Automatic annotation (TrEMBL):
Residues 531-861 form the Pyrrolo-quinoline quinone repeat domain. Residues 27-251 form the AMP-dependent synthetase/ligase domain. This is Uncharacterized protein. The gene is 106094215. It comes from the Eukaryota. One of its GO terms (biological process) is amino acid activation for nonribosomal peptide biosynthetic process. It comes from Stomoxys calcitrans. InterPro entries: AMP-bd_C_sf, AMP-dep_synth/lig_dom, ANL_N_sf, Beta-ala_Activ/Resist, PQQ_b-propeller_rpt, PQQ_rpt_dom, Quinoprotein_ADH-like_sf, WD40/YVTN_repeat-like_dom_sf.
Amino acid sequence: MDEICTTHATFKVLNHTYFIGILPTSQTSIISNRNICYTICTSGSTGEPKMIHVPYECIYPNIKSLCSLLKINEQDVIFLGSPPTFDPFVVEFFMALEMGSSLVVATNTAIRFTNSVQLLENITILQTTPSLFRLLGIQTIRDFVFQTTSSLRCLLLGGEKFPSPQEIQSWLPENFQHDSKRIFNIYGITEYSCWATIHEYQPTVSSKYKENRIPLGTPLDEATILHISNDEGADKESLNGVCKGELLIGSSIRRCYIPQYDNDKDKDNDANEIIFRKTGDLVERDEGGQLFYIGRINNCIKRLGKRICLDSLASKIENLSKTQAICLWDDHHTKLIFCLHCDKEDKGNQSDTQNQFKTHLEGFEQPDQIEYVEHMPLNQHGKVDNKKLLSKILENPANYKKTPLSVFQNFLEQVMGFQQAPVTTTQIKEEATNAKRIKRNLDVGFLQAGGTSFQALSLATEIGELMYRPEEQRQFLEMLLSSEVSLIDVMEFLENTKPNEQTTREYKIDLQSLTSLNADYKIKFLWRSDLKKCVDASPTIFENEYIAVGSHSHILKTLNATTGSEISHLELSERIECPVVFVSSNMALVGCYDGLLYGFNFNTSEILWQISVNGMIKAKPVIMDGRIILGSYGEDYNIFAFDLRSLNCLWKLKLGSKGIFSSPLWLSDTLVLFCSLDGSYASIDITNGSIKWKKKLDSPIFSTPALVKNTRNEVVLAEVKGRVIICIAENGKEITHFQADGNIFSSITLLQKDSLQSTFILFGCHDGNLYCLKYNAPQSQILLHWKFALNSAVYSTPALAFDKSIVVACSIKGQLVLVDTLQGQIKGSYDFKAEIFSSPCVSDSNCIYVGARDNFLYALQVLQ
């Protein structure tokens, strides 16, 4: 608020605090030329909070249209339940003033906790959010609100996704008469103040709604213009047929003044100019011209290489479960969580619901966790608060008493639909004998029972953190992926595992005391840069002068490596986890979740070109002999070669059945190695895309391999289940291998001395250790040289510093350590107090750059 205007006083009305402020002079001079009715601040759901100055000519057409459509007169009683900070408040208030109707004013507290029957008595016009309306309860809605004898004439539901036809039907009594009770889906944004479209739901004509979708409706007035901006950025004026994209709302009359968008430009100079506002909503238009809400654009994720709109998936779940559903993404644990509304008395059909999910949802849509929630938390405007809901789930006291077996048992019951999975192996055997159904289900493997490989990996990560012995973490994942290991075997294994009782706090004390004894280096904080959301991408340094990195906020920054000052700022359409590749003194490349590879000028932020590969790009591309070689998560093709000058596609192919996460490895002038998430890896000729040789491992390959340069050239690569192999680069023949005690997601870093006989192999592991292996090429022998324990799993790739005498590694919990490469002794440490999934990079001047999940890119200076 203080950034928008200067606050001078406050006062309270109905337990709401109001601020009186003075706008900056630059704004007041423009506002004075407009016929401003009121000013309201957005909630921030469509971006940063904004101050909206609303002229009379913008809000009045809204009031006039609604009064006419709803046939409001002085006999009506309008319910004013919206808080004054929510623009529907203005509509409710002004409709009563316009028509001389009665107005019943109630606070949020009264709406949520007062006897609802008394509160709504005599009300004829009710405008509210679906979530707030649900608080009345199905029985009250059916037996009172929609009864023929009730006073209600019109119900307008807006501000959130409209309920499904199944849910609305559950609200209606058998004798419901549509003529006396009208139900509307109303839609709009504060930037357009207030409503833009409306559709009258007709419960008696259920066949009218295909795929159980209810349209947004038609514009409320002739001044409102709707357009769709599609993903390819096509001209919104030309989109007339079936299409999907972001909805834009425009008008030459209903134009609010928004300082962040309009600056000092006085739009009133051109009375015919149409101003469009972005809604942030993804919509679809069918062949009949009807618009359907899909979900929020910023509520989309990529999972198993597939783009998922969580709001759209929630609608799909509601159709299957016939109840309110919310889909949440736990970014920290990379878990998809389904939250289903469930009354205390209504828990009998959970198993049927889970079976519906397994049958009708795609593999990438399957949940990692299902929660049944009696009360969805709401924000002050009566909408479901997803952040509070996720926090409520994650902070459940039951999470602090988890054991490996209890987590797995909970997954079997909640997600896979097993009825009260036995807790101990004794119970398993007893129930298997007495109940054929349980025996049949528990006697099969995890994948055969309906689990997916992605769920197996998610479970292995979550349960692995609860295990004491690292080798058990690796073994657990192998058991889940094996068709020869039954669920009974898995549960028996988990019952016998020793839980990890060591606390993070105790471990940190040990590490700090160790640091004070051996610290030879001091680590000094230099600067940090805010990228607004998680920085999981690894930063790239260029000429010791530029540092570039992207984030989940779609922002990519190029900064001065010494001072941290911003050189350029680029915003793409989706999150960025791909590292930047510098090509020349003014051009760089970066891949994006939107399936595009961008060429951009890192000095000016100008996008020079973009290439679509129809699949998200996480892996860092390589430039080879004038070609761009890159991997993606594309379904049809996941490896591409483009000419760097013409951008023509030279060739493309599909390796394995999954996407490409690891970056390609340059084997020779004409050969490159690619690894797939299905465990496949292959040597490919860059001149024509032909595969020279191909092999396959048992588990996914997230790790980028490395090349040992010796007399025959050998490749070091690691699979998720902890196996590190060395193979001959020319034919892929495996020479030897090493088994780590945990899963490996980290890429491989090599340290080769002057002698070609010995090579040190460095990588991080999910068992919480930084590994250093010594490979002796003449004997084809690989041995553990040392391993150093950090305070949590190591996801990122270690980097070398100080003439390769020091290795830099980061743990997931934010611990950065400097370790002597020869002896594995700690030489310094730094605590970011934030999660780290980004891999550090080190400059020639021994500055360390790394991204964190607190939204910052950090720069540290290492001093001897």
